[in-house]
Specification:
148 residues, alpha/beta, D-tyrosyl-trna(Tyr) Deacylase, Chain: A, 2 helices, 41% strand, globular
């Protein structure tokens, strides 16, 4: 499982011109699921993400968590995080989780986050989404379950 976490001042996702999710200060997270991912892996990833202390304190040090600053989440499904570009110029996505399984994991992650974060917005699994954001910093963290 892979999460690309961007600390944002604001972010939104649209499908067909309709805003599906919009947040202020918080994390916009791209979520990639591979075929071997489990709920236990998702739990570990969510714990790590929500525990990240990447917001600045009064001294300007990255020392505060999403909860501490009252931050919000925008969670976007992103199978292309499992693009394999080793051969040729056309990426292969065979490592990405099958759609049914990946959607189930995405929904599970959303529900786990809602248990701890008051504002959790989302995209639409499998849709052609337009995501915009103001990256704060810029600050981007990549979490990969293979390296946690």
């Amino acid at each position: 499982m892979r999460f690309v976490i961007q600390r944002v001042r604001e972010s939104e996702v649209k499908v067909d011109g309709e805003v599906l999710g919009r947040i202020g200060r918080g994390f916009m997270v791209l979520i990639g699921v591979c075929g071997s991912d489990t709920k236990e892996i998702a739990d570990k990833m969510v714990r790590k993400m929500l525990g990240l202390r990447i917001f600045e304190d009064e001294q300007g040090k990255t020392n505060l968590s999403l909860e501490t600053v009252g931050g919000e989440l925008l969670l976007i499904s992103q199978f292309t995080l499992y693009a394999n570009c080793k051969k040729g110029n056309r990426p292969s996505f065979i490592e990405a989780g099958a759609p049914d399984m990946a959607e189930e994991m995405y929904e599970y992650i959303i529900e786990k986050c809602k248990e701890q974060v008051p504002t959790v917005e989302r995209g639409r699994f499998g849709a052609d989404m337009k995501v915009s954001l103001v990256n704060d910093g810029p600050f981007t963290i990549i979490l990969d379950s293979d390296t946690l």
